[in-house]
Amino acid sequence: MPMSRRVAPLSVRIIAPVVAGLLILAGWAALAHGGTIPRNLLPTPGAVLARLGTELSSGRLLAPTLVTIQQSLLGCLLATVVALPIAYLIAHGKLAQATLAPYLAASQAIPSVAIAPLLVIWVGYGTVPVVLLCSIMVFFPMVLSTALGLRSIDREVLDAARVDGADPRQLARWIEWPLALPATLTGIRNGFTLSITGSVVGELVMGGDGLGQLLAVQSQSSDTTGLFTTLIVLMTLAIAIFLAMTAIEWLVNPFRVKATRPAAVHLPTKHLGEIDVDVDSPEPARGRTADRIGSLRAGQPDFVRWPEPQPVG
User: Fold this and answer.
1) Which of 198, 243, 277, 305 could form a disulfide bond with 134, CB atoms 3.0-4.6 angstroms apart?
2) Mean pLDDT across the chain
3) What is the predicted pLDDT for the residue at 254?
């Protein structure tokens, strides 16, 4: 079962990154105005912000930004569709883990820049190879996070449901995937942010109409102010995606309601036949599961460790 963790107060989570950003800006301004580094190599923050305002007001950054978001989203969705079933297989099958784990690890040793030319040869130019590159970069973190979440589920909850007659499909739908949802969403959140990098790298190598192609043009013309402007847009986009996915993760997290105590798991009775398991309750199960727990306590199998009732404090 997921363990509760201490989270910094909201004010700290807002003020701390703002202060860090101001310190970075102060250091940047000190270097730019110090005269040690030429302005054509390191523009001042004021020049970059002025250029950013001009680009935003003219709308020249809107179309490339939307293209990058589209490619990143499609790559993340494709990786999610493929990664979640594979993670389930790895978490439940020793043979699948032994077969797939070495290849998943080996795939991380191949640079994305080396994969991009192959994708061009195989599928040509355009959006498709960039989306495929994004999905390849996102795939491994999603598999790893989801498999870890599935393996972290308390075995006592699964054993109680099996005793009550839950089949593998019901276990996956009503217990395993809901309990592994926080870890799965964490993988998707990190993957979506990483897919922005995949989109940029893909366009730097294969071309396109997004922010990666804009970076390539600015780099060829030695437009350092434009490069800083585009990089700021990319960082802002990644932060926005990270915060949005964090908010979604918080909203759908089944453990967010009980922040000060371990969360309980309630299995729908209409789908598992009078089963309602609450691992934190003084009564560990109700319905037919409670009767079977009582009958199994005297001679329970080694793999079943039924929780003892705790006094209500």
Assistant:
1) 198
2) 79
3) 63
Residue 24 makes CB contacts below 8 A (sequence gap 6+) with: none
Helix (H) or strand (E) holding 168: helix 168-171
In a domain, 34, yes or no: no
CATH at residue 148: 1.10.3720.10
3-state secondary structure the chain: CCCCCCCCCHHHHHHHHHHHHHHHHHHHHHHHHCCCCCCCCCCCHHHHHHHHHHHHHHCCCHHHHHHHHHHHHHHHHHHHHHHHHHHHHHHHCHHHHHHHHHHHHHHCCCCHHHHHHHHHHHHCCCHHHHHHHHHHHHHHHHHHHHHHHHHCCCHHHHHHHHHCCCCHHHHHHHHHHHHHHHHHHHHHHHHHHHHHHHHHHHHHHHCCCCHHHHHHHHHHCCCHHHHHHHHHHHHHHHHHHHHHHHHHHHHHCCCCCCCCCCCCCCCCHHHHCCEEECCCCCCCEEEHHHHHHHHHCCCCCCCCCCCCCCCCC
- Residue 245 within any structural domain of the chain: yes
Three-state secondary-structure class, residue 57: helix
pLDDT of the residue at 5:
55
Q: What is the number of domains present in the chain?
A: 1
Cα atoms in the 13 Å half-sphere on the side-chain side of 34? 9
Domain range for 132 is 43-154+168-252
- 150-192 per-position pLDDT tens digit: 988 888 888 888 888 888 888 888 888 888 888 888 888 888 8
Would you place residue 289 in the very low, low, confident or very high pLDDT band (cuts 50, 70, 90)? very low
Specify if 83 maps to a domain.
Answer: yes
Q: Sort residue 184 into left (φ over 0), alpha (ψ -120 to 50) or beta.
A: alpha
- pLDDT higher at 36 or 24: 24
Report yes or no: 187 and 146 within 8 Å, Cβ to Cβ: yes
Task: Quote the pTM value.
Answer: 0.71
Output DSSP code: residue 166.
-
